[in-house]
């Protein structure tokens, strides 16, 4: 593409006049390229994709039927703007029944989102002035921080270390950062570590937020995908509603990533500001989709079935990876299994392949073993396996995992 005056007009936040000229290749593009190369080198072979970050199945038939019914109603046809009462009320019931959050006022303390990603991109506009800090956990989902930086904000990363159960160390934040910090973003069950929060941790977060005058955004995209007990909500913590909001989504909990619907709930002022910026950003999700989402929130047994499937797959994947010498432990929720990346793989003929990063391991796993994973090198070297791999039924699941075991059995890992 030749340069035109347009090239000189890009905002600095996306690279200014150098926008689009970087030759750096990002992680997910590298994975895609390695998969393409592996397929070309092994025509007809099965690449086992353990890197997928979304459900492998479609929404439940009763939810699709609900969408159909609602889409036929003329009154649902128009701009939804900030939505009607149906999703708000269902969200209030869901928080109460499923998450144990009492006393949410659906009218003033809940608002729909076009998925949590959209909410995470809207919320920074309400709070971030140039020079303000946001506290983000790393590795993690970066959208809030990206938009905070668009507004001239700064991101302080809090590493998620295994030694601290992949919870951030809030005491590690330098005083000058803390003084200028406005927002803390947390996400449990966590992508990518699969870690869960504890009631004590959430109580500490509320205390920390109150003491330092900080807003908490709890990204609960995987909240209901738990393998035992009830989902743990930040909002169920005493005082949480005074300091923050929680983001829930149908994407992962109800196999509805493409539908784009969820909600923001909690502190009334934060919800109101979110709504004001949202109103100037989008015109709301289609009411038929909102109403189908409301149906979901009244049918949490759907999520329980999905979680049971992931739990079964997770146990089997843990066994498979442990059998291959990887340090796998079953998480309490999410669909992610996060394991230490090996430092080397030794083949039966003695050939030793050394790795400096998790990214190198992941590239080798794709090209040599035809197994795709997602590497993370932000706080230690780890590989993320997802149990949303493609398999049709339990027999096929077993076949896929046996094949993973067979492919990995041909090497010995060193740590
Ligand atoms: C931690 C986290 N938050 C938010 C999202 C986005 O979810 P949604 O589909 O609701 O936008 C994802 C999606 O992968 C995620 O992993």
The outline comes out as: globular
The distinct ligands, each listed once, are:
pyridoxal-5'-phosphate
| Biggest sheet: strand arrangement | 2-8-7-6-5-3-4
Structural class of the helices, strands and pairings? alpha/beta
Strand content: 15-25%
Q: What portion of residues is helical?
A: 40-55%
Mean pLDDT: 97
How many helical elements? Answer: 15
Gyration radius, to the nearest Å? 22 Å
- H-E string: HEHHHEHEHEHEHEHEHEHHHEEEHEEEHE
Description:
The chain is of the alpha/beta class. It is 40% helix and 16% strand. The chain is built from 15 helices and 15 strands. The strands form four sheets. The protein has a seven-stranded mixed beta sheet with strand order 2-8-7-6-5-3-4, with helices on both faces. β13 (374-376) and β14 form a beta hairpin. The longest helix is centred in the C-terminal third of the chain and has 23 residues, at 301-323. It starts with 26 loop residues before the first helix and ends with a strand. The model has no long low-confidence stretch (mean pLDDT 97). Pyridoxal-5'-phosphate binds at residues 53, 115-117, 141, 187, 191, 219, 221, 249, 251, 257, 262.
């Amino acid at each position: 593409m030749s340069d035109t005056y347009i090239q000189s007009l890009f905002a600095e936040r996306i690279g200014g006049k150098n926008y689009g000229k970087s030759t750096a290749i990002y992680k997910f593009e590298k994975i895609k390229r390695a998969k393409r190369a592996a397929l070309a080198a092994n025509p007809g072979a099965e690449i086992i994709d353990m890197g997928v970050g979304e459900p492998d199945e479609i929404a439940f038939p009763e939810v699709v039927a609900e969408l159909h019914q609602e889409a036929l109603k003329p009154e649902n046809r128009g701009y939804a703007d900030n939505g009607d009462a149906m999703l708000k009320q269902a969200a209030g019931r869901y928080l109460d029944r499923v998450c144990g959050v009492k006393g949410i006022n659906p009218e003033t303390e809940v608002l729909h989102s076009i998925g949590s990603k959209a909410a995470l991109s809207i919320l920074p506009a309400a709070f971030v002035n140039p020079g303000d800090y946001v506290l983000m956990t790393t590795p993690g989902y970066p959208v809030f921080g990206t938009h905070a930086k668009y507004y001239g904000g700064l991101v302080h990363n809090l590493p998620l270390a295994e030694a601290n159960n992949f919870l951030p160390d809030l005491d590690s934040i330098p005083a000058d950062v803390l003084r200028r910090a406005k927002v803390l973003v947390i996400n449990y069950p966590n992508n990518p570590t699969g870690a869960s929060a504890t009631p004590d941790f959430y109580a500490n977060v509320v205390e920390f937020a109150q003491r330092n005058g900080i807003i908490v955004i709890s990204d609960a995209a995987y909240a209901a995908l738990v393998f035992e007990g009830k989902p743990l909500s930040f909002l169920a913590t005493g005082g949480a509603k005074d300091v923050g909001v929680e983001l829930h989504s149908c994407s992962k909990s109800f196999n509805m990533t493409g539908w784009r619907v969820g909600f923001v709930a909690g502190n009334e002022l934060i919800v109101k500001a979110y709504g004001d910026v949202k109103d100037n950003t989008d015109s709301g999700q289609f009411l038929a989709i909102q109403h189908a989402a409301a149906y979901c929130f009244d049918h949490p047994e759907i999520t329980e079935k999905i979680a049971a499937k992931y739990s079964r797959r997770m146990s089997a994947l843990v066994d498979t990876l442990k059998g291959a010498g990887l340090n796998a432990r079953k998480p309490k929720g999410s669909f992610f299994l996060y394991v230490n990346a090996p430092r080397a793989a030794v083949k039966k003929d003695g050939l030793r392949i050394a790795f400096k990063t998790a990214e190198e391991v992941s590239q080798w796993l794709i090209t040599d073993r035809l197994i795709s994973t997602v590497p993370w090198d932000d706080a230690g070297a780890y590989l993320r396996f997802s149990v949303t791999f493609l398999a049709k039924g339990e027999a096929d699941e077993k076949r896929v995992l046996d094949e993973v075991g067979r492919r990995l059995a041909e090497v010995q890992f060193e740590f």
